[in-house]
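Figure 6 in text form: structure in, sequence out.
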């Protein structure tokens, strides 16, 4: 165990996509400026720390993934502390502070952190600092930055208390006399309430750089006619403020070009989640009309010759590349157009000051430059403030340098949110906006996150279509923005749409000498099983499905599976099934008109549809949204949930649908039970807890 001085504290992180690790590294970097030393480890490295014997304060940074689960790196740790045989004083010696990361767009906000926090409390551990819950929906930094600022005082108080406890003969008296003083000295923050109202102070955090503004040297104050700030322009007070900017992250990667040739790694080597399967796309259908607002595609994959298994309701991941033209553009800006196919060797920089520096797992030690930029790095990622801070050092123009400093500073927090975060600005946009910025390849590898595989809901049943897997998606369109003057398609959906374009026009496909399509495309996938979003184990149990737009996708698999079970087991009792579907226009984006076939053959008991943008000449306007139709069926919905103990499934958009559906269910329960809203909310919470109200939603 390192760092055994009394100024040491243990720093643990549990990350899924790298954010928790990056924040832990920021804490580690700032610790030295406060006379402290952080002993930092991934929470999965349980051989490198021992909470059972830990005497120093512990700081935990933990994210949330899936439907409120701890990240994969924390699973063993959580399983260990959830051992029911542990006594209630197991961690009575432990002092800790916890920072949870989450997204309030999802139901179980920060549940990964809450789970660990709650269990540590149950086992007797004590907070030395208030728990922070940071919301990626509005900007993690709104909570993370002030939480880190307040951490140092709390740590010093906790360490001082620990020192006094060890140095006094009467330890019990020492704890009672000093304990309340130390805890009251902790800087209190209302971290989990409305973070939008949290005001950041101008005084700089220790461990960051404070830059004075020299208006004589830097002409960034907008003239009278340009009083609005933009990505490249600031206005008072930001343009006239001294700035508190993050400390410069230490460099830790070096890249060497090689003259030798070879082969790039297989895509499966980039995935740590399990076995990958390369499968052909056998069918592609556009489900929407050309004049629909969104383009929805159905793709069919051939998994017959693989060991890939799934249940209706499961999800799976597609390994996708970055847009090749964007990669070419990036290479051009970096002056590396001629070197794209050259092999590079990526290693840790000798003498780096970064603790525990290692080559990122998603970066192969040896591959071509294009392979790294196409398959490994998320070049569309919204740049973090630490990345902006590093880009400052690569920028030669004084005005551009100052603006980048502002965007990563405490004073420029609202500008960062408005012009970078909310505008979905990426590295390419920054390099166009700040042309004197010329980052090195090693800097990109250090700061750009891993290119994540994209998750999709299965829209088929292996019982109904053996050896086939179907899924449905909207092609994501990102319109141009003042901060991002180029419109783009989604990384994965845009790539898939381009990949299957020939299948959408089968008359253009030619066959080779073996009779096979010369344009058959393959994609790499891996399973992502869903532990809960499945059909009821008892087929006699009724269930309700709510899935507007592409949210209907998993329910197609549900119904296919149910139809096949009915054919195979005519003697079984099957519960009634309800489907509430909605779209904008009946003639443009009614995705699955064959739903009526399920209705006609008895697989589906009730089909309720609505069309939000179609005009009506009826005296009483028809309902526009699925939540409106639910309310019209209030008695039946309440009966299925309460009397028949049925299941309720919701799939689709979180912000614009799932919350409204949840509110409608609360209203229905309140009305039909003749109970107040609070009691209805408790019933819904019980349904969630019993896994009878299930969601598969996205933001």
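Output sequence:
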């Amino acid at each position: 165990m390192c760092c055994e001085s009394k100024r040491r504290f243990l720093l643990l992180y549990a990350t899924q996509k790298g954010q928790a690790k990056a924040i832990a590294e920021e804490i580690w970097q700032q610790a030295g400026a406060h006379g402290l030393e952080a002993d930092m480890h991934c929470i999965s490295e349980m051989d490198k720390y021992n909470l059972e014997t830990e005497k120093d304060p512990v700081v935990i940074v933990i994210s949330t993934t899936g439907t409120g689960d701890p990240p994969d790196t924390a699973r063993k740790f959580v399983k260990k502390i959830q051992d029911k045989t542990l006594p209630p004083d197991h961690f009575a010696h432990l002092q800790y502070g916890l920072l949870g990361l989450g997204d309030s767009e999802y139901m179980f906000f920060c549940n990964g952190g809450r789970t660990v926090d709650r269990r540590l409390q149950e086992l007797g551990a004590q907070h030395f600092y208030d728990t922070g819950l940071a919301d990626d929906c509005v900007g993690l930094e709104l909570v993370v930055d002030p939480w880190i600022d307040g951490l140092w005082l709390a740590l010093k108080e906790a360490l001082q208390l620990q020192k006094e406890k060890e140095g006094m003969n009467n330890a019990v008296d020492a704890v009672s006399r000093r304990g309340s003083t130390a805890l009251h000295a902790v800087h209190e923050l209302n971290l989990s309430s409305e973070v939008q109202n949290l005001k950041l102070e101008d005084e700089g955090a220790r461990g960051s750089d404070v830059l004075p503004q020299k208006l004589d040297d830097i002409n960034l104050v907008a003239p009278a006619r340009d009083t609005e700030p933009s990505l490249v322009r600031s206005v008072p007070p930001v343009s006239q403020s001294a700035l508190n900017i993050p400390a410069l992250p230490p460099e830790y990667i070096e890249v060497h070009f090689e003259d030798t040739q070879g082969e790039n790694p297989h895509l499966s080597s980039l995935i740590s989640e399990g076995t990958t399967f390369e499968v052909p796309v056998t069918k592609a259908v556009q489900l929407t009309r050309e004049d629909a607002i969104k383009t929805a595609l159905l793709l069919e994959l051939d998994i017959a010759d693989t060991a890939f298994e799934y249940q209706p309701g499961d999800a799976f991941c597609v390994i996708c590349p970055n847009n090749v033209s964007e990669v070419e553009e990036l290479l051009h800006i970096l002056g590396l157009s001629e070197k794209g196919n050259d092999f590079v060797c990526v290693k840790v920089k000798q003498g780096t000051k970064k603790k525990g520096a290692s080559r990122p797992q998603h970066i192969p030690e040896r591959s071509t430059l294009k392979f790294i930029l196409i398959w490994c790095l998320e070049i569309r990622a919204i740049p973090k403030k630490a990345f902006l801070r590093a880009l400052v050092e690569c920028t030669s123009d004084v005005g551009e340098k100052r603006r980048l400093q502002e965007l990563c500073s405490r004073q420029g927090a609202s500008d960062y949110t408005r012009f970078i975060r909310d505008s979905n600005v990426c590295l390419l946009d920054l390099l166009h906006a700040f042309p004197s910025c010329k980052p090195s390849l090693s800097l990109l590898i250090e700061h750009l996150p891993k290119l994540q595989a994209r998750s999709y809901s299965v829209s088929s049943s292996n019982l109904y279509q053996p050896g086939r897997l179907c899924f449905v998606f909207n092609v994501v369109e990102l319109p141009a923005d003042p901060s991002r003057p180029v419109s783009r398609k989604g990384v994965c959906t845009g790539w898939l749409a381009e990949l299957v374009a020939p299948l959408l026009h089968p008359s253009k496909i030619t066959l080779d000498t073996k009779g096979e399509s010369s344009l058959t495309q393959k994609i790499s996938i891996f399973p992502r099983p869903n532990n809960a979003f499945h059909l009821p184990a008892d087929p006699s149990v009724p269930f309700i499905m709510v899935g507007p737009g592409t949210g209907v996708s998993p329910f197609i698999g549900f119904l296919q599976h149910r139809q096949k079970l009915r054919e195979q087991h005519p003697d079984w009792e099957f519960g009634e099934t309800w489907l509430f579907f909605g779209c904008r226009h009946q003639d443009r984006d009614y995705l699955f008109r064959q739903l009526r076939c399920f209705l006609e053959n008895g697989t589906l008991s009730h089909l309720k549809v609505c069309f939000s943008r179609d005009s009506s000449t009826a005296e009483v306007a028809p309902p526009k949204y699925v939540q409106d139709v639910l309310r019209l069926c209030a008695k039946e919905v309440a009966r299925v949930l309460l009397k028949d103990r049925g299941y309720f499934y919701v799939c689709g958009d979180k912000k614009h649908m799932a919350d409204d559906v949840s509110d409608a269910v609360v209203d229905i329960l309140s009305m039909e039970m003749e109970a107040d809203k609070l009691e209805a909310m408790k019933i819904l919470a019980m349904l969630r807890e019993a896994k009878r109200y299930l969601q598969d939603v996205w933001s």
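Caption detail: The radius of gyration is 28 Å.
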